[in-house]
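Need a sequence for this fold. Nothing fancy.
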């Protein structure tokens, strides 16, 4: 703002243009930073899936057993509290989101941690990059309805919850085909925190900025 002979004049076009350029640069930097954060979360979620699979195969190669289902875990780790063995039937009993330590889907994490394949201690499921959980369960072994995530993937399944739509789409696209109802990666709309996987699969992801998904992949 300039004052000439006692009169006030408005900003010149050049001054306004400079201000607009500065605002544009600031907004561009903020948006770019947000996009970089989103990309980092996508990479972390994909890495989680790969890491769980690597831990599983490492455990299986070392002990010739499935973590959580390992019938010899109790005699292998005896320091108090001793490990609780599984049934040894090659099926992970319990849901991926179980809160019951006696379920093999929770013992899974305890056995992997005792073996040193996963950091931390105890039975609780790890937390992903968007404050959801990472859990494991058997797919068709639980006899779920056809057309659900568990009904569409046989064998062991690892799931990651609380994924915003943009992240869920990117994760499915990078690891599989980008379709929530096909392939080895499936997605389900998440109505609540860590839902059971018994809903019908959506025919496609909806990127609205508000939708949340749980994404699961065959081990």
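Here you go.
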């Amino acid at each position: 703002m300039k004052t000439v002979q006692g009169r006030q004049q408005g900003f010149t076009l050049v001054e306004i243009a400079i201000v607009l350029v500065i605002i544009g640069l600031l907004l561009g930097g903020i948006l770019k930073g947000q996009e970089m954060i989103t990309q980092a979360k996508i990479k972390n979620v994909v890495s989680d899936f790969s890491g769980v699979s690597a831990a599983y195969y490492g455990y299986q190669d070392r002990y010739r057993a499935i973590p959580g289902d390992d019938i010899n875990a109790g005699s292998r780790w005896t320091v108090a509290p001793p490990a609780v063995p599984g049934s040894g039937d090659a099926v992970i009993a319990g849901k991926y989101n179980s809160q019951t330590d006696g379920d093999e889907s929770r013992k899974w994490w305890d056995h992997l941690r005792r073996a040193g394949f996963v950091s931390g201690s105890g039975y609780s499921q790890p937390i992903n990059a968007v404050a959801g959980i990472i859990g494991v369960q058997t797919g068709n072994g639980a006899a779920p309805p056809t057309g659900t995530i568990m009904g569409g993937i046989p064998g062991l399944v690892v799931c990651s919850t609380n994924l915003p739509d943009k992240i869920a789409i990117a994760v499915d696209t990078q690891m599989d085909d980008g379709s929530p109802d096909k392939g080895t990666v499936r997605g389900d709309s998440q109505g609540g925190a860590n839902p059971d996987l018994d809903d019908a699969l959506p025919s496609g992801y909806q990127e609205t900025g508000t939708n949340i998904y749980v994404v699961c992949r065959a081990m």
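For context: The chain has one domain: 46-218.
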